Amino acid sequence: MQELIKYGKKIVEAGLAHSHFGNVSKRVGDQMLISTTGSMLDELEGQIVTVPVDFASPDELDVIASTEVNVHRAIYKETSALAILHGHSKYAVVMSMLYKPGEQIVPEDSESIYFLHEIPVVTGGIGSEELARNAANALRDHKGIVVQGHGTFARGATVDEAFVILNSIEHACTVKYLADIARK
Predict the structure, then answer these.
(1) What is the Cα–Cα distance from 120 to 59, expressed in whole angstroms?
(2) Cβ-Cβ contacts under 8 Å for 180 (sequence gap 6 or more)
(3) Number of folded domains that form the chain
């Protein structure tokens, strides 16, 4: 739990989320720790609940868990992720609006190429089954995605790895956006 609190603060400090937006989770066996809906990522003390990853019917804590809880569940079921971070960084959102769903943002800087290769752009409403399906499918083969007009999801074997990916997505999108402007 302390690790999620630490990285929630880091996400806000890095400008990868703002106000009451974004969420964090960590898988522990068949359960996940996840931030609650409406919680501020830099103030997560007492704002993390434990819910099952797999369920036959909604858990009683689902009502206070993040509105993206079903997206996290789908990603955990379809990938090897042990941690998922979701942010709302500026340049990633802007870049997602310049691409069509199914297209990929191809980084131009060497670090982003190394860590990300390419960044899929997916669609789906906040917390929707469409988003859960599209995010999980794209994250099978990628460590990070951008949801068109919404934000980013990053997965990792650790919370630290997911943070590196989340940060790398924003860096890649910032560099690409500025390079595209400079070329015009």
Answers:
(1) 31
(2) none
(3) 1
Q: Compute the CA torsion angle 175, 140, 147, 86 (nearest 10 deg).
A: -80
What is the Cα 80 distance to its own chain's centre?
A: 15
For 9-33, how does the pLDDT look when each residue is reduced to its tens digit (9 = 90+)? Answer: 999 999 999 878 999 999 999 999 9
User: How would residue 56 be classed by pLDDT, with cut points 50, 70 and 90?
Assistant: low
CA–CA distance, 108 with 42 (Å, rounded to integer): 31
Nearest partner of 172 among 102, 83, 95, 87, judged by Cα: 95
Q: Which two tokens stand for residue 94?
A: 């802007």
* Phi, psi at 178, each rounded to 5°: -65, -40
Single pTM value for the model: 0.96
Quickly state the pLDDT bin for 167 (edges 50, 70, 90): very high
CATH number, domain containing residue 76? 3.40.225.10
Amino acid at 7: Y
pLDDT in tens, 90-131: 999 999 999 999 999 999 999 999 999 999 999 999 999 999
